[in-house]
Amino acid sequence: MAVEDRNITCTTQEKAGDSCCGIPLLGFVLCLAEMVDLVNRRLLEHHLKVAYLAFRFGEVLGFSERSLGDLLLGGLLHDIGAFSLWERLDALHFEFHNPHHHAFVAYLLLKDFAPFASLAEIVRYHHVPWEEGRGGTVPLESHVIHFADRVSITCSFRKDPLGEIREKEPFLRSFVPRLFHPEVFEAFRKLLSRDYVWFDLASPHLRRIVHDLIPSGRLCLNTEDFLRFCQVVAHLIDFRSAFTATHSAGVARTAHRLGELTGLPQSKHVLLFAAGLLHDLGKIAIPVEILEKPGPLTEKEMHIMKSHAYHTFMALSWIQGLRDVAFWASEHHERCNGRGYPFGRTEEELLFESRLLAVADVFVALSEDRPYRPALGPRRIREILENMASSKSLDVDIVGVLLDHFDEVRASCREVQEQSALEYAAFRQEIVRFAG
Ligand SMILES: [Fe+2]
Ligand SMILES: [Fe+2]
Ligand SMILES: [Fe+2]
Questions:
Q1: Which of 189, 218, 247 corresponds to the end of one domain?
Q2: Ligand 1 centroid vs 305 CA: distance in angstroms?
Q3: pLDDT in tens, 128-182
Q4: N or C: which end of the chain has fewer CB within 10 A?
Q5: Which residues surround ligand 2, an ion (CB under 5 A)?
Q6: SS3 of the chain
């Protein structure tokens, strides 16, 4: 699939330049990659480095523009299936136990998004040793990402990147051809004399460097694909834990319906839906061990948990065209009385859409099981919403609209959550089948 054929729409004029007519996919994926790496300081920039190296190896190997795009995006997404902290840290060992599990999970998450079909296959095999994958179904791009990944964990690229990479070359060579494709290793050797590659990897500007490798106009999402991609992201956020498996879908549907019921213009309904899908984006940076903790969180764990709303803002506000969505999504824990987080904004400072997202989030959360309590019934949910409105925690008018249409909104939310639950069950089943 060519980059231009990814169902990603741009006008001819915009394709020729560097501007983007829709949502820039690369910027969005970059934010996701950085979020996944925020889970531990030892992993910072891992995805950036792998993407950068894979792209440079691909250039030397004469890959097409399409394959270079796949290498870049594949490098940025290759470990998104490693949900737990221990699994991410385990992958820092040069050869580690069961490396294919997280690669398969990433494949499952990406495969149903049509523009990522080939990318999903590449990510699926990114830990297959060359001697096991040669002549089989493993794409060459997977071998490139595999080697880029192992170079990334072998070198720190901190103090003397030129000296370090030359020093590590014999060690890496010792795994050719057992682990690494000989041609990929040759491409690496050619790059050893190109100092800028290794300076780039040590640069504080690596994000910008990676971002500029492909003109943003080439990888833009039209509205339809943007929403489909948001669904993929919502699964990535939600499927990390059974307790959150259907949350974003429920908030998206509820926010969309509340947008209609409160009379917001139709143009905003879709964006509210997207904000609902993305509101907990920052939870990708929270270790699953905290998300699933059965008892009360410690003070420190609570601080980490609260940071998710901040991370949501920092990621989305950087993406061109998503500034409004960034505010609405990241302010879902703000409270009208100023007692929310992370910004402590008051009713006057919060946009109506942000207050609406906050109501949707509370409503959906109360109707879901949590590690520390079961789902609440309709009467109790109504009571809590009324109390939160009267204490100026939630917007009185929006809560009023929700309570007036309670059964209908609840049924609509449940419908989409049931669908999501089925998708989650199928996802778990595939993983069990893979492991078995
Ligand atoms: Fe990996
Ligand atoms: Fe990795
Ligand atoms: Fe949240």
A1: 218
A2: 25
A3: 999 998 878 899 999 999 999 999 999 999 889 999 999 999 999 999 999 999 9
A4: C
A5: 79, 149
A6: CCHHHCCCCCCHHHHHCCCCCCEEHHHHHHHHHHHHHCCCHHHCCHHHHHHHHHHHHHHHCCCCHHHHHHHHHHHHHCCCCCCCHHHHHHCCCCCCCCCHHHHHHHHHHHCCCHHHHHHHHHHHCCCCCHHHHCCCCCCHHHHHHHHHHHHHHHCCCCCCHHHHHHHHHHHHHCCCCCCCCHHHHHHHHHHCCCHHHHHHHHCCCHHHHHHCCCCHHHCEECHHHHHHHHHHHHHHHHCCCHHHCCHHHHHHHHHHHHHHHCCCCHHHHHHHHHHHHHCCHHHHHCCHHHHCCCCCCCHHHHHHHHHHHHHHHHHHCCCCCCHHHHHHHHCCCCCCCCCCCCCCCCCCCCCHHHHHHHHHHHHHHHCCCECCECCCCHHHHHHHHHHHHHCCCCCHHHHHHHHHCHHHHHHHHHHHHHHHHHHHHHHHHHHHHHHC
